[in-house]
């Protein structure tokens, strides 16, 4: 098992509705503390960012022959991903009864 890294205290300001929702999760037993929830959420975000960078590097190396994606291509790709997420969310929200 990897060694635990020391924790460092920081101060953050949360919107009141976010804090209330986090406290509700804690009361429901889904997490031991606000700190653990915030830490997990930020770790997940950082992991997603690292994964996105690995995908980008793979695409540039293997599909574009080492040529970097342009900023315009990245903006277009982000738009395509956002549209795909919205379609998926809409399908899930409809109860998938159209299947």
Your description of this structure?
This protein is an all-alpha fold. 66% of the residues lie in helices and 0% in strands. It has helices at 16-27, 34-63, 71-93. The longest helix has 30 residues, at 34-63. The N and C termini lie far apart (44 Å).
A few lines on this structure:
With 99 residues, the protein is mostly helical.
**Mean pLDDT metric:** 88
Return the string of H and E elements: HHH
Contiguous helical run count: 3
Based on helices, strands and strand pairing, what is the structural class? mainly alpha
Low-confidence stretches: none
Shape assignment: extended
Oligomer: single chain
> Main beta sheet: strand number and arrangement?
none
The end-to-end span amounts to: 44 Å
Q: Beta-strand percentage? A: under 5%
Helix proportion: 55-70%
Please report the total strand number as a whole number.
Answer: 0
Rounded to an integer in angstroms, the radius of gyration calculated over CA atoms is 19 Å
Topology summary:
Elements: H1 16-27, H2 34-63, H3 71-93
Which key terms come to mind for this protein?
3 helices; mainly alpha; 99 residues
């Amino acid at each position: 098992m990897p060694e635990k890294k020391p924790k460092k205290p920081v101060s953050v300001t949360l919107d009141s509705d976010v804090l209330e929702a986090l406290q509700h999760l804690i009361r429901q037993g889904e997490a031991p503390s606000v700190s653990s929830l915030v830490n997990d959420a930020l770790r997940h975000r950082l992991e997603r960012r690292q994964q996105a960078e690995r995908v980008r590097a793979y695409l540039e190396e293997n599909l574009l022959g080492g040529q970097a994606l342009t900023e315009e291509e990245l903006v277009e790709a982000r738009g395509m991903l956002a549209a795909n997420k919205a379609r998926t969310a809409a399908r899930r929200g409809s109860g998938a009864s159209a299947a």
